[in-house]
Every structure is written in C-alpha cells, then in structure tokens.
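Q: Sequence in, structure out?
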Amino acid sequence: MWTFSQIWIDFVALIFPDKCMVCGEYTDSGVHNICMKCRYKIPLTGYYRVENNPVKEYFETLIPTVQCSSMFYYKSDEMWRMAIHRFKYHAAWIVAYRLGRWYGLELKGSGLYDDVDVIIPVPLYWLKTMTRGYNQCHYLAHGMAREMGVKVDKYCLYRRRNNPSQTTQSRTERWENVDGIFAVRFPERLRNKHILLVDDVLTTGATLNACAQAILRAAPTCRISIATLAVAGRLSNHL
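A: Exactly. Output:
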C-alpha cells in the first residue's frame, strides 16, 4: 500500500516532459525517462547481481551485513557523474527518483533482496534539508521501494548535528566527521527487521558505517543491507 508521498512523487513524475533524465534529449523509447543511448553508456558494476562482490567484501570488514551493492561507477563516465550532481546539488530530485526505480528493478530481479522489510535513506540534518528543500536520498529510496514493493522509513534514523560537507575531506577526516552523528528514534520499528540502507555515492563508507552502527546499537536484532547508486571508482583504488 502506497503512502501519500509515494503517490505524490508518481503524480509529479507523470507531468514532466519526455526528456532523458541524463542527457536532456527528448525520448520516447527510454525506461523511466532514460534514453537507450544513456542506458547503454552507464558504467554498471554488476555487483547487485552477485552476493559476493567488492562492496560486500569491503563492508564485511566494518559491520555485519546481509547484502551490499552499488549500481554504477561514479568516476567512469562524465555524463552519469553529472546526473548525480544535478539531483544532489541542483534540485533535480526527479532524476534521483527515476534512477532509484531502475536500481530497484535490478535489485528485485537479482532475488538477493527479496526479504528486505524497510528501506532507510541516509538522512540530512534537518536544517540542511530545509535549506536545500529536499534530501536526494529520500527520492532515491522511494524509487527503489516503488519497484521492490517495500516501505520507506525516513524518520527513525536522524542526524544529531549538522556536520561539515565531506566533499573535500580526506579519508581520515571523513571518518572523524561522521563519528557519533547519527541516532535512532522509534527503535521498536526496526527490531527484527531486514533494513536496506540507501545512499547516493559510496566513497569511503564512513557515513554508511556510522548509520549502521547507530541502528545496530538501537536495534541489535535487525539485519542490515546496503545499496548505493554509485561507487567512487574501483574499490581497490578508492576505498
């Protein structure tokens, strides 16, 4: 059963013109408004099709996880990297939603995420959300949930303070920047649940690790999986 926010997102998506969400050209042959040319060029990882993959192996050294994946490589194609920049910094939230739907189809098709109970997007600090007007991870999560047939919970996990942006920080600074900044309200909602944590780009894993640690402290009986839309380069070189 769809929530009001999911119904509203689908309604708004219908009134957008038939332009490719990546290149901006008009198209009538794309899936979720992504033309076939851009779909062909996307640098897919294929990680979402297999249980043992570099993202899973990396997070296993940090936290217990069920499944982990990223859809495409962030630094392999300029056009796709700019698509993320558009929805992350330039209010093109519909791009996040439609890419989320595509990713959700891939996760559902793999069969590895069939027992996910709830999707939790990485939260922004409330003041940053008000200033920006949206959290791109919310729309990404709603798109994924739409295809996977599960619900989104964007209230249980929250940021306790407004930490600085990590864009220009070193690996060590990124880990220090997110240490202890996440907390959980309503932990009873998460007990014994299989949670899919969703973020847009995986760089060092510091943010997702901090989120998972907060959830596991509040609801130690839950299970956690991780899905990011993109991963910053090949893991052997960047993580």
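The first strand starts at residue 68 and ends at 73.
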